[in-house]
Here is the input.
Amino acid sequence: MEELIQSSINYILNPELISPTFHSVWSVARGIFFTISIILIGLLVFLLSVNSYLDLRFRERYTEFKKAKPYHEVKLDTDWKEVSSQAQDEKEAERKLAVIEADDMLNSALEQIGYSGANLVEKLNGLNEEIIPNLEDVKKAHKTRRDIIYDQSRDLSKEEAKEIISIYEKVFKELQIF
Here is the structure.
């Protein structure tokens, strides 16, 4: 058996035993395949440099590694610092606007992350306490927002506005948006 393996290896490695026509055909085929491989590798490098997919994936992985948190590419339309300062404003209209903007920010953030629903109520109903631990507080804050919009005479104190904004801020931290 060992002699058969040794003779097979010698036959494969000895170019004198291979016929000249096969050797010339093999050399041409090898050159063609080598050229095709170089062209395909060049095309792959070109397509990867034009496409931003690898850059996006690398950025996501690097951010996840650096922060030790999952990466969500969520862009909030409004600056959170502006919303939290509006909640402490002396004017009631500014406080109401802060609550409405915070609610809208949560709605768009949940949509960007991938939760489905026609409105925030449907999105919140699709969530559970594992995803958002203070889910009931968020639902109450959203109810307050609806009351503000549909009832013009609804009063909103400074303390209530701060509490609602802190609820939304806690949700954003739980979803790792901040």
Summary: Residues 80-174 form one domain. Residues 46 and 123 are 41 Å apart (CA to CA). The chain has a mean pLDDT of 83. The two ends are 69 Å apart (CA to CA).
